[in-house]
Amino acid sequence: MAPPRNVVKIAVQMRDAIPQLIQLDQAKPLAAVLKEVCDAWSLTHSERYALQFADGHRRYITENNRAEIKNGSILCLSTAPDLEAEQLLGGLQSENREGRREALRCLIPLASDMTFAREVISRNGLERLGTIIEDGDDLGEVLALSLRAFSELMEHGVVSWETLTIPFVRKVVCYVNMNLMDASVPPLALGLLESVTLSSPALGQLVKSEVPLDRLLVHLQVMNQQLQTKAMALLTALLQGASPVERKHMLDYLWQKNLRQFIYKNIIHSAVPMGDEMAHHLYVLQALTLGLLEARMRTPLDPYSQEQREQLQVLRQAAFEAEGESLGAGLSADRRRSLCAREFRKLGFSNSNPAQDLERVPPGLLALDNMLYFSRNSPSAYSRFVLENSSREDKHECPFARGSIQLTVLLCELLHVGEPCSETAQDFSPMFFGQDQSFHELFCVGIQLLNKTWKEMRATQEDFDKVMQVVREQLARTLALKPTSLELFRTKVNALTYGEVLRLRQSERLHQEGTLAPPILELREKLKPELMGLIRQQRLLHLCEGTLFHKISSRRRQDKLWFCCLSPNHKVLQYGDMEEGTSSPALESLPEQLPVADMRALLTGKDCPHVREKGSGKQNKDLYELAFSVSYDHGEEEAYLNFIAPSKREFSLWTDGLNALLGSPMGSEQTRLDLEQLLSMETKLRLLELENVPIPERPPPVPPLPTNFNFCYDCSITEP
Question: Which residues pair with 561 in a beta bridge?
Answer without folding.
Answer: 550, 578
